[in-house]
Amino acid sequence: MKIFAAFFLLSIFYSPYVNAKTVDIRNSMANIVNKAFFAQAQNDKVIAYAAKNKVYSQQIAKDAVLIVSHIRSEENYAQMLNAAKNFDMFLDSLFNANEKLGIKKATDPAVLKEANEILSEWKIFYPFVVKFFKNGEVNPDSYRYILDNNEKLLRLSHKLTQTLKSKRVMDTTLNKVVEHSLKIVDRQRMLTQKMFKEKLLIYNNIDKARNKIRIKGSIILFENGLKGLLHGDKKRGLIQVTNDKIYKKLQTAWRLWRAVEKIYRNPNPSKEDILKLAKYEPKLLKISNELVTSIEESLGIL
Q: Would you state the CATH architecture of domain 23-170?
């Protein structure tokens, strides 16, 4: 049902010249529209959590490489476990509901199919995270498995997010431009983790040639996304953000990016470079999370 059609129908039935039958019809229509709004709110909330799982898949892998690099190992392992816990909590909510998250049990066959595909991978992946770091030692089998399979979780989580978006109950045409901006900002958030992971892998001489190619693509996506949101980009379907609160956050993100851009483009980073990235990466993730939240609020998702 299109949202504007729903409002038009309600305007017809909410007339001072009504009889008992019209009142019944009017109340039924109001109930239908209310249910549609509620269903869309639920769907948007699930989409937001599904998008976060894309970030968590990369955060887990990034933290694993940080630990192997002996950079705040205990702190990063706690962060890694928390990301895995959040990933698991959302995935479980699709099958069993979660009152805390405000998510109902999924019933759509297509959504359940995607969720089961993720679950099949996650059942194997999660135990490797749990046993990754014990008594100051890294489990080499866990490390290898996480490096080899984190992007599969990313792809499957992205696929689920797209499927959920295709199930939207109402056509929010008025917000299409804002929704596209949210899609780009959500990707920026994931890329803060993916780029740093790729740089750490290069630094540790792990699949160096392959990761040099990958990080080039990640940098292009990240920088073009930021520029498009700040200044507009017709080619990418972006208009310049005019919301002052969001624009200021984008300017902060740009300043943070400029502070580390040269290091990301450097094919042979030093230990000092990596430590600087480790200092700035949480700041980039934080501002990216704030941008996602601000745009979600403007769409009425939160």
A: Up-down Bundle (1.20)
